[in-house]
């Protein structure tokens, strides 16, 4: 075989290996999903969704975990979204290029890489103890808000940056103040991108376990939360609890809960993709 | 000169000067700007908050436990009767699982990046790239389930003396989770290499593989290295996979078949228990948290610096 | 003797410390069309943007000298820049209507001034669309998205939008350069109509357009140092037939630019 042919063959071999590597993760994912489905599909039922956890696997359900998630996530959005969008607006539309702005941006970048359990420690000391919120839904939501804030800010900044400068110029030239330009022209155009970012950030929050465990979300809750000050648990914590038990019956319950969690994530991300598609159709430049 | 009536000119220019309405408007604008600035500062406050919280609880800890013991004692048994406060086993556990994770993710992620950047057609890329991102979106507790209930039994068949809780399963699963981190960032780095470099190499008769390995990767090296560091940082900070599958037995070892405990899993363990707040035992989670924070901080800052430097090069 | 509405005195604009235009002194007569011509990069747009303080939006820009509007220095510290921009409107090179309805585009200026009354807004919208020679084409689809209009229509919409704040001066930065010849012609006709009521300053790289449309012409040129200066200013007739400066003549006759 000639030198040239050997090089070609090596190239083809490499391409095959690289393709295999690319697909490897996806194969593992498929394997994981099949395994979860195998164990968990049989568990899904109305009573699974409406029963409290129990010592007996056959009677255990995700009612309290589901309700906890349903309470915590919208509350998280309530805190995180205005704060994140406001910060993004400041950084994109107002902030001068100076050291303070650099510091803020560096902070945001860094916070994105801080392990989520550290946010749990922060939440424990600040919200649970210092602000006396105890191990409540409110404390959990505040902790998660801080966690997803960097993601939200980054996504919102990108949405704002995508708005063409010419739009702002036209508004300024008509005698609009900076806030008028932002409120009437920039934000409406950036809104779909911001919404997408918000959904992405919340789909991260919905799967978070460690910080909520640290602030004291319980693993065994047998009541419906009635107010933001109630104790709570969430779906991922319930999954963690059941996975940690030795009985196979609980493992099946965990798989069922995972299916519910993944279904929720799928719909959220599907919604985000749909919204992004719709918004691209509307603003044809 | 044809001047218009003086009074009209005076009125018209007078309105140009800032009157009451203008001053109100300007105060309003300033108020909005202040509010938005405060929102942006929340990130700075958060960082300060984290450092403050960790120090406030860790400092009393270090008043009772010497730094020497903390760093050098080979045992970590704060919850037992005979208390040792040496963090080395936890750090070793974290290091072991992270090393396994990165050892898997580095080659797989880099190869994926090369494939997507240099070989794949735009259509294939448009499908595979977002598909890989899905891996990053799966909640870690699901990965933990997978590690304990699927990977471990599977590995036990190949490695008979594998413990039920072990660093290998958790590490490999973490590795799969961080593949997209490496492949995405590396691919950005490879993509940023100007095509003129590639074209020059092709013109000299190089094959695609040679161009990729000899020209593109070296040019994108700093970005690739940054992605490795960020992936390592992510693995170090990971909690649920290791809490579920790696064990709760602090062990100073480099044998991945054994059960260990990571720094993050220890914090979870104490949080789930009933150690009272304000005790030395409870404060251990803040001391551990401080070490964890510092390690990931250093890794992140190095990676950010590298990324900024290579963005400059191709401006 | 013409009445002067806008005047610059030794105007210099610095970007990041480097001058882009220097020592510009010129007088813009009322209700006439003044064209600013010159090769690309000579600072025409920079000069134009000084008249409505749009250069304020560029953080690295610094302005020295004076820009007088009705005798008042626009850059003095007690001037309300929002009011300046209402009185001196601007139309941009590439039509940039808001991605809203035609109605909302024109109504935006009056709305942010506080005008809420629906009938008043209706009246303003119709008046301005008529003045921009667009009313007949859009009167049945006022609530359709402005981006569905053709390029020429969008630019006329931008003109109507600028007119809605009742300015005295209209600044136009190469308003027809992104348009086809027929649309360009419509814009030029419109300009002549508008000049009856408004003072118009237009930047153009199209010499023939300047000769066709304007009453006065200012010729700018950037030297070796890449700093734009005013070379000559005068009635359009005179600039194009008997230019006083050699460089003006070279540019007019197409020797460069």
TrEMBL record, chain A:
Residues 66-272 form the ABC transmembrane type-1 domain. It comes from the Bacteria. One of its GO terms (biological process) is phosphate ion transmembrane transport. Keywords: Cell membrane, Membrane, Transmembrane, Transmembrane helix, Transport. GO terms for cellular component: plasma membrane. SUPFAM superfamilies: MetI-like (SSF161098). Pfam families: BPD_transp_1 (PF00528). The keyword Transmembrane helix applies. It is found in: Cell membrane. The chain crosses the membrane at residues 12-34, 71-91, 111-131, 137-155, 254-275. Signal peptide: none annotated. One of its GO terms (molecular function) is phosphate transmembrane transporter activity. Belongs to the binding-protein-dependent transport system permease family. CysTW subfamily. This is Phosphate transport system permease protein PstA. It comes from Thermoflexus hugenholtzii JAD2. The lineage of its organism: Bacteria, Bacillati, Chloroflexota, Thermoflexia, Thermoflexales.
Automatic annotation (TrEMBL), chain B:
Residues 91-303 form the ABC transmembrane type-1 domain. The chain crosses the membrane at residues 30-56, 90-114, 134-155, 167-186, 285-307. The keyword Transport applies. This is Phosphate transport system permease protein. Pfam families: BPD_transp_1. It comes from Thermoflexus hugenholtzii JAD2. It comes from the Bacteria. One of its GO terms (molecular function) is phosphate transmembrane transporter activity. The keyword GTP-binding does not apply. Keywords: Cell membrane, Membrane, Phosphate transport, Transmembrane, Transmembrane helix, Transport. Part of the binding-protein-dependent transport system for phosphate; probably responsible for the translocation of the substrate across the membrane. Its main location: membrane. Belongs to the binding-protein-dependent transport system permease family. CysTW subfamily. It is found in: Cell membrane; Membrane. It is a multi-pass membrane protein. GO terms for biological process: phosphate ion transport. GO terms for cellular component: plasma membrane. InterPro entries: MetI-like (IPR000515), MetI-like_sf (IPR035906), Phosphate_PstC (IPR011864).
UniProtKB/TrEMBL annotation, chain C:
The keyword Transport applies. GO terms for cellular component: membrane. Pfam families: ABC_tran. The keyword Nucleotide-binding applies. GO terms for molecular function: ATP binding; ATP hydrolysis activity; phosphate transmembrane transporter activity. Keywords: ATP-binding, Nucleotide-binding, Transport. It comes from the Bacteria. PROSITE patterns: ABC_TRANSPORTER_1, ABC_TRANSPORTER_2. InterPro entries: AAA+_ATPase (IPR003593), ABC_transporter-like_ATP-bd (IPR003439), ABC_transporter-like_CS (IPR017871), P-loop_NTPase (IPR027417), PstB-like (IPR005670). One of its GO terms (biological process) is phosphate ion transmembrane transport. Residues 6-252 form the ABC transporter domain. This is Phosphate ABC transporter ATP-binding protein, PhoT family. The lineage of its organism: Bacteria, Bacillati, Chloroflexota, Thermoflexia, Thermoflexales.
